[in-house]
Amino acid sequence: MAVSASTSTGGNTLPRFPRDFLWGVSTSAHQIEGAVDERGRSVWDAFTGQPGRVKDGSTAEVACDHYHRYPEDVALVRDLGVGAYRFSISWPRVLPTGAGQVSARGLDFYDRLVDELCAAGVRPVPTLFHWDTPLVLEEAGGWLRRETAERFAEYAAVVAERLGDRVPTWITLNEPAEHTLLGHALGEHAPGHRLLFDALPVAHHQLLAHGLAVQALRAAGAGHIGIANSHGPTWAASDEPADRDAADFYDLLLNRLFADPLLLGRYPDGIGELLPSPDLDADLKLISAPIDWYGVNYYQPTKVGAPGSAPTEFSGVTIPPELPFAPQEIEGYPRTDFGWPVVPEAFTELLLSLRERYGDRLPPLMITENGCSYEGLDDQDRITFLDGHLRALHRAVDAGVDVRGYFVWSLMDNFEWAEGNRQRFGLVHIDYATQERTPKASYGWLREALLAQSR
């Protein structure tokens, strides 16, 4: 898919990607939209209202005020020179109670946003679910109930009917692994449940929601459908059997629990019998219905060892000793402001391993998220990160991995979930007091890199 020629980017060079390679930037509704009084409440509104849940005490009530400032933000996407904008649609903005009466005002917003993107020559790539479950559905049991998957399919049909004539590419779910593990098993994200392995039904019902949504989107005439799953290499802390077993189990949860049912039509050994389903084979047939592409969100590898007798602190998350693994810090690499190790070569390793594991069952890939948190407008560390990861991606493409696109996380600084406003992932700086948008050095670097790719 690629050749070895390089292009100049302001004194640096990037390898040339295929001419039809899709470049984009990503955001999510709850993290940027604000305007909470103009939509239904979500689990994140309830979660951030509980003292101590968000590390800096901030909320997303205003966030980046994208709801009112979207024309300015679309102009930033256009001027960056990317071909696509990945955003998410807020389920409670479209269906305030998760089902039933549609909010005309909410759906009209996304109609205007899609029109603005199309007018700017930017492909709209909406994600239907990026963790903001309508609170009414959560209070009825949320993702622990099968019915939530059914409500999600109804919501997908509503959105597709309104936007499908202008949206060529769809994403069903974003990172169901994190939503299951952080939101329902460990309680670090909304809705804040600490269910440990009793959270497994959440995984299954999200996958079922994906399958039902694919069915609903296809029925509405939509095509080019994918999902955005998080993935990363898992490295055993040592060759000791206990560490290797722990790493294998962590790898199962992060990399296989969601990919295996989607791509192979089965759960990893020992998982299926733990899931509530009146007909698991029928569910898996729905879940594994063909998709057009598979999205990969990549940030870092994880080193994993056997658990000790006390909780483990890792990336701001407390891992209880009841779990059969304990993530450990990876030494010897630079770190982002989030404390995550910067390991571009692990990106290549991941993509090669996905091809090896799934073979011809692996659809074309899209990198739906990749980015880093750094302070400051002159964000040279972010430039180094992006440069290294794009080179790592190119090595995988050169090795024959079929990757069709790459989306930077994120267009702009935003509300970073339980971290609040403390972590800045954006190519564009947001002054939360004034809402002024200021492109960072990385924005200019990427614009020049993409311009060089187009020559």
TrEMBL record:
Known EC number(s)?
3.2.1.21
Q: Which domain of life does the UniProt lineage start with?
A: Bacteria
* Gene3D superfamilies named among the record's database cross-references: Glycosidases
Q: Name one Pfam family in it.
A: Glyco_hydro_1
Molecular function (Gene Ontology), one example: beta-glucosidase activity
Q: Which UniProt keywords apply?
A: Carbohydrate metabolism, Cellulose degradation, Glycosidase, Hydrolase, Polysaccharide degradation
| Signal peptide boundaries | none
Q: Could you name the active-site residues? A: E175, E369
Key word Hydrolase present in the record? Answer: yes
**Gene Ontology CC annotation, any one:** cytosol
- Has UniProt tagged this entry with the keyword Protein biosynthesis? no
Give the reaction(s) catalysed. Hydrolysis of terminal, non-reducing beta-D-glucosyl residues with release of beta-D-glucose
Name its GO BP terms in alphabetical order: cellulose catabolic process
The residues listed in the UniProt record as binding substrate, with positions renumbered to this chain, are Q31, H130, N174, Y299, W409, E416, W417
The record, for PANTHER family, names:
GLYCOSYL HYDROLASE, LP05116P
Protein family membership: Belongs to the glycosyl hydrolase 1 family.
Q: What is this protein called?
A: Beta-glucosidase
